Amino acid sequence: MTNPLIGPQATPPFHHFPIEQVETTINAMLSDARAQIAKFEVEDTIDWHWLARIEALDDELSRAWSPVSHLNNVCSTDELRSAHDHCIQALTAWHTERGQNEKLFKCYQQLAARSDGTVAQRTAVEHAIRGFKLSGIGLPAEQQQRIAELKQNLAQLSNDFSNNLLDCTQAWTEHHEDASQLAGLPAANLAVAKAAATAKSLAGYLLTLDAPQYMAVMMFADNRALRERLHRAFVSRASSAPHHDAKTDNSHNVQQILTARGELAELLGFDNYAQLSLATKMAESEEQVLNLLNDLAQRSSAQAKAEFAEVESFASELGLAPVQPWDVAYVSEKIRQQNYQLSQEELRPYFPVDRVVGGLFEVVKRLFNVDIQRDDTVATWHKDVGYYHLLKQGQPIASFYFDLFAREGKRGGAWMDDCRVRRVDESGTQLPVAYLTCNFTPPSDEIPSLLSHDEVTTLFHEFGHGLHHMLTEIDVPAVSGINGVAWDAVELPSQLLENWCWEPEVIPLISAHYETGEALPQALLEKLLAAKNFQSALFMVRQLEFAIYDFELHAETRAAATPSALEKLAEIRARLSIVPAVAENAFPLSFAHIFAGGYAAGYYSYKWAEVLSADAYSLFEELGIFSEAAAAKLFNCILSRGGSEPAADLYREFRGRDATIDALLRHSGIEEAHV
After folding, report:
1. Tens digits of per-residue pLDDT, 569-578?
2. Pairing of strands 395-405, 433-440
3. pTM here?
């Protein structure tokens, strides 16, 4: 019988996805999985074939759950959310139960004692044994039970956090009968606001807190009061602020999450939650992480203060003194225009999404000798979503879904996730399939989707993640693609690919004016490159503020004492912030990365991996941006190897040494005079 969530094909049945069967199907699969595990754990022969059968069981469950989880993120409905939320509880219980199974643990120990097996197989077993230990294997029964309860609670709390944030973001709107209050907004954003109003049977324009619309208002709207209203609404999302529904307040959720994490860490033998987080990371200690972050903060601080002083001075000239948080992006854009004769909106017409995508595919082809072809025969969940194959010498090696535009019911941000993972067994090879998701301004009837250069880099970033998943040559699912990769190294391929967006040799490939077809003119290209590091130190300090906040918060998260998320934010701001914040700014309550997205005590990963990616790109700077030798090393040492070996070892094999901070400082424009 065909599983209704998987279907007979290589891709999920998105054309008629059976939401009404999700709960019953997942529960039936879990019941069957328990029965199979009960047989596996008492078998006499524990060998690599035994492991492959376990992997097949896990993969079937993953293939069924993946589309449910993904659809809940990209086209959420009440029915789907209900099914998803119920299944989260069942799946969490299953994974904890697996992790505390003594008989199964002993089977893995037998595998670990073998002297044969591939590197990938042995690493998969090592990771599994680590997973058992992080589930409380060997602890007294009452402690194991408490760990199971905590993991169950954390899964529910994180899920509630995401739901509250999505609901709050989508509930807030501001309606304008005409455009008189919207002066300065680009035509593309006005068109989107008009379409949003029409969709609600309203005349005029409807502003929302979707990221593309919010950023457009912050950067371009001349109406200061309008900017203030949107800013206050955005930074207080999922809080108790009066302009939001109290039902979406994440304050209690966040504190409960921290309390549960602290208790979990103690039960597993760690001093705090940051130590628990580092058990699966490339970084070796709390001190190592904080040393990197504080070093970067010290190097960036003086330059960031100078950059903000320029904002304050220019704001005064514009009659906006004292500068307020909702003025910063607006004034900064004016400074960019004055200093570089360049506006983000002046660039946007040269980056229609279809041209950028085509250029991205060409860059990937030149680097890795793969072709990318669209396949309109594969069903998707929305008319704007495309499906593509990666081909090497005419043969498919992977596929991906491209879902690029913001819409109602879709979680904000940009991300890559796996739909299918590479796996090889007697029946053949299952090729990897990725979900690549962004939230760009959608096309209107008059104007195609036009990207800012920042959005171009976002697209390249997510495709870098996709390549890590799709170009893998590892056949063991647990360490294939992005699976098993240390979290603080997983951003290496994504941040690395961003560099090509800035290369004069690449710009003609990704740019063509949507009306004339003209590539980005040389004069604009020179301005773009000159402005590359505009306010780079301010951006650096802002990211470090997030990372240090996250890591220190979780380093203080213990069973005996749980820090206040908002009080810790105030402490970090007093120490690091350069840009002022309004009193109702409750950033942690919308910080999904660390409370719902897997980055708890791990947001530092972006800077950690940026050290790696900048250092890695320096090899391409030395040998040529399309150097076959450099691309081959990247493929052979990083992209094809997945999580089959420690990230530090793979990087040393790629670069011949450990990464240094020098390239990051140079790429970021952090000047030695400010060090």
Report:
1. 999 999 999 9
2. parallel
3. 0.94
